Amino acid sequence: MDTIAAIATAMAPSGIGILRLSGPQSAEILDRVFTPDVGGPMSGRKPKTLVYGSMRDAKGQLLDRCLATISRGPASYTGEDTAELQCHGSPVALALGLEALFAAGARQALPGEFTRRAFLAGKLDLTRAEAVADLIHAETPAAVRQAAGQLSGTLARKVEGLYDILTDLCAHYYAVLDYPDEDIDPFTAAEMAETLEQVSRELDALAATYQRAKAVNEGVPCAIVGRPNSGKSTLFNALLGRERAIVTEIPGTTRDTVEERLTVGEITLRLIDTAGLRETEDPVERLGVARSRAAMEGAELILVVLDTASPFAQEDGALIQEARQLAPVVLVCNKEDLPPVQDLPAEVQDLPKVFLSARSGEGLDGLERQIAACFPGGAPNGTDAVLANARQMEAAARAREALRRGAAALLDGLTPDAVVADVEEAMEALGEITGKRVSEDVTNRIFQRFCVGK
Fold this sequence. Notes:
The chain has 454 residues and is an alpha/beta fold. The chain has three domains: 106 residues, Probable tRNA modification gtpase trme, domain 1 (Gyrase A, domain 2), CATH 3.30.1360; 132 residues, Up-down Bundle (Four Helix Bundle (Hemerythrin (Met), subunit A)), CATH 1.20.120.430; 150 residues, Rossmann fold (3-Layer(aba) Sandwich). The strands form two sheets. It has a seven-stranded mixed beta sheet. A six-stranded mixed beta sheet has the order 9-10-8-11-12-13, with helices on both faces. Strand 4 and strand 5 form a beta hairpin. The longest helix has 25 residues. The radius of gyration is 29 Å and the shape is flat. The two termini are 18 Å apart.
């Protein structure tokens, strides 16, 4: 296998920048670009020791005074020989250092290639590899904790435990079948049914974590909707704490959706300000209204803003009914700083509601509490095993479905040999979660998420 190199830190001025190598020639290539101040070359040094010296290009010109270290496989991140240069964080100096490594025999690493090599070497299972990418992209403390928990193996251990239970079930069945004369406990349909039920319950509980984990990683799409001039953009700006959307007294000012991320408690919202929903002949405003409805359809939480200083209109009722068919709804009764005019009809009294003034900010804390109440589970902590992405959820769903088919077959009187095929299908799906059984196409898609150098 060839030796790869990459800049492992962001290309922006910083205190430290790292150049990384992995592959069989890592130490030799490092020797060609780095000279220790004292002692012999790095290839003869004790692994995992920081050494101070000079980094030079192919012509021998000094590029930086920096630290270097080597690690020998398999006791390294990738399982191969690896090396690092810890330089000053000049993007230009790092780029020149990388060119020197290429001239010395390395090639450019592909996105995620270091972690991919770690996976192929058995240093990481696929859930931990995905957690590396999640941790790099984490934007909130909850996302950091969730990714760190996955990186420590919480999901892998859970899935491997279920896989082992099913493995024991199949092994018992085949042992009885292949060695009928041996003193082996008989295999019964009741035993199989009990095991299928146990693993199915565990998978149901695991599947229930997906939406919470997805909300942490991706954010909850939250559409702010209402009639023109109800105060949607003012509320949007107030929640963000800055003037992001244009606000005027003219109805129909917002012509397009505007999206920003906002953390409320431990929940991240992908907050979407929308155009006022009304019938209009203006072709541009009509496009904005169409996009508003599309935002509603894709939302997992909808804030319907009502202008309490104006009478409740038929359009308000129609919008509320439409919204509650699509996602959980919170009524935001805005303009509480003005004399109230609006009385809410009986048919919307069951919805959670908050009275506030988006202009003054009074009542915003109540809205944040109500939003948090819509997600009572909160964010998973670092000790939870969670399905963190759609790939994991899809594989778990296939495992559940296979076990349900097997359980139904037992109830229908089929013999255990017919059910074992369903159990083995469930095992294959579980194996895909951790990477025991996974296609190259899937791994390619996973590691394309990674940045170069990781």
